[in-house]
Design brief:
This protein is α/β, with parallel strands linked by helices. It folds into two domains: 2-244 and 442-466, Aldehyde Dehydrogenase, Chain A, domain 1 (3-Layer(aba) Sandwich), CATH 3.40.605; 249-428, Aldehyde Dehydrogenase, Chain A, domain 2, CATH 3.40.309. The chain is built from 15 helices and 20 strands. Strand 8 (164-168), helix 6 (174-187) and strand 9 (194-196) form a beta-alpha-beta unit.
Length: 473
């Protein structure tokens, strides 16, 4: 682990191992941080923020450090890519371009580091203005599906704004974060500014979330875990930003180009083996083209080639862990009990590795569990609808609100639907497009706050109002 600029091995809590989901082999011994380790990391971050002057570091200096880090990420992109693939089994065709996106995001927030400004406000007899100041010590708790990309969305704006950070990566994917931490040290960030503690939710994550000197928790993960983080923060009124689960609708209207729409549906649910918070797992299809869409989706799903995630031609990788595999298989049983129509898939693939078949259920009611609960796997639920009103009603009938897709050739319908869908991101005739300059986050139980874009920097600052009496004595 990285604590106060030093590399720390396993202490009293011992260590745990990573598992390659493609080979199912155990590899790598990683420290299990206990409450004392977490306390040392938070104490180092507190000291770096309060006493060592990081918060007063000129924005231009913070920007320079971030640019140096971005350059190191660029030169280490292959190593960072392969480390993540060994941990979670995602495809090289997705993860290698993702490494470049991480570097570009770092460059972007380096540019924003010098843009944190306040405003002046007219007030008779007073000089009044606002400033934006860093919050303090940030706990960045990250998931296993895109470990470095989602860490960067928190780490880069937090550092740009002048905060210090303690990172707790998922126990499934800790080693890629430690590789990034090596680059952070090499870039020249002072000791204590960035710390990494590894371990499970208990005791490591719980100790970090409940630590009284943590000023904000920035978390990506399941809605249930996010609620636990929010409860821990509420005890001391700490700030939170939460990017949580989703059950996103991908809505195909009868006037859509069917082939393009089905390609978008496949990208929305089978890319990343469905292990993405924005997965378009509810596929709403207007009745006149329902049969055509279903047939084409099933035929294309059956053609997806499972295999080695390091092979650029592989189209379907393993799921990230045995626990995730068992969860997905459990939903197959739930679907069977609910009497759903299985169009394809619904089984573990008969081959080595943690693979499941791309799965499509047909004629699904939005009240079914597989249509309401986040499965986080390659499972699509086809839901027929008639007209815009029913599409909106079904799409919004969910506790989540992270993303939505619309497939239509009508510009007017696209604008009407985008305005009515309760989701933080709406894609029209595309799906899963992201940019470091566009804010990302969810409505309702999909989260609190926004990552990416200028809004991300605001999430890591506090606003201070200053009143100066300018009246004559």
């Amino acid at each position: 682990m990285l604590i106060d600029g030093e590399w720390i091995g396993a202490g009293g809590a011992g260590a745990f191992h990573c598992v390659d989901p493609y080979t199912e082999e155990r590899w790598g011994s990683v420290p299990q941080a206990d409450a004392a380790d977490v306390g040392r990391a938070v104490g180092a971050a507190r000291r770096a923020f309060d006493r060592d002057g990081w918060r007063e570091t000129p924005p231009a200096h913070r920007a320079a450090l971030l640019r140096r880090l971005a350059q190191l990420i660029e030169s280490s992109a292959d190593a960072l890519t392969y480390q993540q693939i060994r941990e979670n089994g995602k495809l090289v065709s997705e993860m290698r371009p993702g490494a470049d996106l991480i570097a570009r995001a770092c460059h972007y927030f380096a540019g924003l580091a010098e843009s944190t400004t306040g405003v002046t406000v007219p007030a008779q007899g007073f000089t009044t203005y606002t400033t934006r100041e860093p919050i303090g010590v940030i706990a960045a708790v990250t998931p296993w599906n895109s470990p470095l990309l989602l860490l960067g969305w928190k780490l880069f704006p937090a550092l740009a704004a002048g905060n210090t950070v303690v990172v707790k990566p998922s126990e499934v994917t800790p080693t890629s974060t430690l590789r990034l931490a090596e680059l952070i040290v090499e870039a020249g960030f002072p000791p204590g500014v960035v710390n990494v503690v590894t371990g499970h939710g208990e005791p490591t994550g719980a100790a970090l979330a409940s630590h009284p000197q943590v000023d904000k928790i920035a978390f990506t993960g399941s809605t249930a875990a996010g609620k636990a983080m929010a409860r821990a923060a509420a005890e001391r009124c700490a700030r939170v930003s939460l990017e949580l689960g989703g059950k996103s609708p991908n809505i195909v209207f009868a006037d859509a180009k069917v082939s393009a729409a089905v390609s978008g549906v496949i990208a929305g649910i089978f890319a990343a083996t469905g292990q993405t918070c924005v997965a378009g797992s509810r596929v709403l299809v207007e009745r006149p083209i329902y049969a055509e869409v279903a047939d084409l989706l099933v035929s294309r799903a059956r053609e997806l080639r499972a295999g080695d995630p390091l092979d650029w031609t592989t189209q379907l990788g393993p799921v990230a862990s045995r626990a995730q595999l068992q969860k997905i298989l459990g939903y197959f049983e739930i679907a069977r009990q609910e009497g759903l129509e299985l169009l394809t898939g619904g089984r573990r693939l008969e081959r080595p590795g943690l693979f499941v078949e791309p799965t499509v259920y047909g004629g699904v009611s939005n009240r079914c569990r597989v249509a309401r609960e986040e499965i986080f796997g390659p499972v699509a639920c086809l839901i027929p609808f008639e007209g815009e009103e029913e599409a909106v009603a079904i799409a919004n009938d969910t506790p989540f609100g992270l993303a939505a897709g619309i497939w239509t050739e009508s510009v007017r319908r696209a604008h009407r639907m985008a305005a009515r869908l309760r989701a933080g991101t709406v894609w029209v005739n595309n799906y899963r497009q992201m940019s470091y300059a566009m804010p990302f986050g969810g409505f309702r139980q999909s989260g609190i706050g926004r990552e990416l874009g200028p809004q991300a920097l605001e999430e890591f600052t506090e606003v201070k109002s200053v009143w100066i009496d300018a009246a004559a004595p």
